[in-house]
Amino acid sequence: MALETVVFQQDPFNYSHKDCNFYNLETFHDYGNFGYEGYNWNSSIPQSYNDDDNNNNNNNSSPDKYFPVESTVVSGRRKRRRTKCAKNEEEIRNQRMTHIAVERNRRRQMNDYLAVLRSMMPPSYAQRGDQASIVGGAINFVKELEQLLQFLEAHKQIIKTNQQHIQYNPLSKFFTFPQYSTSTAATNNEGSTTEERRSAAADIEVTMVESHANVKVLSRRKPKQLLKIVNWLQAMCLTILHLSVTTADHMVLYTFSVKVEENCELNTVSEIASAVHEMVAMIEEEAMSC
């Protein structure tokens, strides 16, 4: 009968620290110490082994003890927390109350001013009570008052000149610094000579604030003159916001409030005045040729 030898390979990972303990020799005393009586076994055992002996109660010891894992140490300075200057609650409350009081006072003053404006105008100029309607109605009312003043002043000057037998244009007094003037007594302005002012086709004055311009034109009345001027202004990208017309005898005064659009080629006062003068001269030439 043949015998076969089978060798079972033992898994090395199944060994525990208790199976490999060669230092706990106190059990030999139970078997007669094998002739080693009186020998101090603990004297030659290092302290580290004794410490390991006390921790062998658990067969499944943690592998981290024998194969320690390197711990990642995060280095860096700890950020300082900035201390916020907290305001006192009483101070914050006082500021809030002050702001509310100022805002309430401002609104009250605005309502008072709007009420005064509305009381000074006829009801037809501010049919609605909102702020935009009241302010817009006030602007239109002031424009009409200006036109009425020009009309009354013109007739007053006509009566005065007729009594004194003096030739005088009553509407010319509404020009302060005209760029073009037909009056022989007009003073020089912006380097223009007297001959240039005498040859002007009309009295023209242009004032400008940002993108808004005020254009005054004083000339002799011609057929379809106003229609041609309005069409020309619109063609030159000058949007008419307000228009007033005042006549005195054979003279007429046009006052335009226009807005200069972004695509307009006329950007300065002198450019607008020069273009308006050329346009009025062309209208007069067309009227004379007819």
Automatic annotation (TrEMBL):
Subcellular compartments: Nucleus
A UniProt-annotated Pfam family: HLH
Lineage summary: Eukaryota, Viridiplantae, Streptophyta, Embryophyta, Tracheophyta
Superkingdom, taxonomy of origin: Eukaryota
Bias kind Basic residues: ranges: 76-85
InterPro entries (UniProt xref): bHLH-TF_ACT-like_plant, bHLH_dom, HLH_DNA-bd_sf
UniProt xrefs under CDD domains: bHLH_AtFAMA_like
PROSITE patterns cross-referenced by the UniProt entry: BHLH (PS50888)
Protein name, as recorded: BHLH domain-containing protein
Chief location bin: nucleus
UniProt keyword annotations, A-Z: DNA-binding, Nucleus, Transcription, Transcription regulation
Stretches assigned to the BHLH domain: 94-145
Presence of the UniProt keyword Transcription regulation in the record: yes
GO cellular component term, pick one: nucleus
